[in-house]
Amino acid sequence: MKMIMRWFGEENDTVTLQQIRQVPNIDGVAGALHHIPAGEAWPMDEILALKKSINDAGLQFEVVESVNVSDAIKLGSPERDAHIENYKLTISRLAEAGVKVICYNFMPVFDWTRSSLDAPLPDGSQTMEYNESIIAEIKPDTIADYMLEKAETYSLPGWEPERMAKIVDLFSKFSVITEEKLRENLKYFLDAIMPVCEETGVAMAIHPDDPPWSVFGLPRIFKNQGDMEAIMALNENRMNGITLCTGCLGSHPDNDIPAMIESAVSKGKLHFVHIRNIRITKPRYFREVSHFSGDGSLDMFAILKALYQSGFDGYARPDHGRMIWGEQARPGYGLYDRALGIAYINGIWEALEKG
């Protein structure tokens, strides 16, 4: 298992590559060109500049998170073929730069949803929270305004201001898209790009819906193991794979995370894992907590044991962390709590290796 951290770039991240390099057992970072709009091809010179900055810090650049899929592709609108051609070109360019895995999602409108980005915890830290009773009482444009306000100067992938300005129009367009149609559009996308992925050796790893249920009536197609199996079957190519996010899927207590890991690894389709813990206080109400099992609702030892025993040898990263020790950073992506998470994961992994 190769441990990495997500990094948003020199201009948009309080955490530096030098700090990441000092975290024990770190191989590299997951990066991206966040300023390139979905549907456009990534320029080769900018890809190589990003790679150089990462490599110069002694880190590898083998995972991209994310090359966003445009709304046109998700909707199946006439522009999708042109956007897919740009996506294929981006895959080829990333492969030339040494990238092995692209994490992406197929969630309509919002890539992820929270009711609070700075909910207080009893220990004085702050965290992200989802409360269905709050979400149910507000309008989509209201939560978009809240997210952008709380993000302050940081960009939030999936909540780009230029997209949120069109939120009413997006909801109108997606109102006629069923889960079946969204799945068909995903298959169309996968069938188009898989030949390029096979040729270049770049694996696509779809991220689960966050949270794993419908929000604001939008369709969701990666909520549980049944959905995961269906997505893997849409295209049998080994490059059509999964990003398994433990906190995402674990926020629904019916999801058996170790079983999902074992299934995806057995098919050779688990390419990337996001490791985090959450505490469920009631149905559809959870808070993100430290990685320690005792702080949350997930058995992190059982999850890591499933990864180890199944022979997982892909990429993993600590997912969202709390804001601790007075750190001011992008919500979920400070240095301190994610570094603690890696130390915790390292300890369990070494214990598993040594029996």
Automatic annotation (TrEMBL):
Entry keyword set: Iron, Lyase, Manganese
Cofactors, names only: Fe(2+); Mn(2+)
EC number, UniProt record: 4.2.1.8
Gene3D superfamilies hit by this protein: Divalent-metal-dependent TIM barrel enzymes
GO BP of this protein: D-glucuronate catabolic process
HAMAP family, A to Z: UxuA
Pathway stated in the Swiss-Prot or TrEMBL entry: Carbohydrate metabolism; pentose and glucuronate interconversion
Membrane-spanning segments: none
UniProt GO molecular function: ferrous iron binding; manganese ion binding; mannonate dehydratase activity
Catalytic activity reported: D-mannonate = 2-dehydro-3-deoxy-D-gluconate + H2O
Family: Belongs to the mannonate dehydratase family.
Keyword Manganese annotated: yes
PANTHER family: MANNONATE DEHYDRATASE
Top class in the EC scheme: lyase
One Pfam family of this chain: UxuA
Name of the featured protein: Mannonate dehydratase
Organism of provenance: Spirochaeta isovalerica
Annotated gene: uxuA
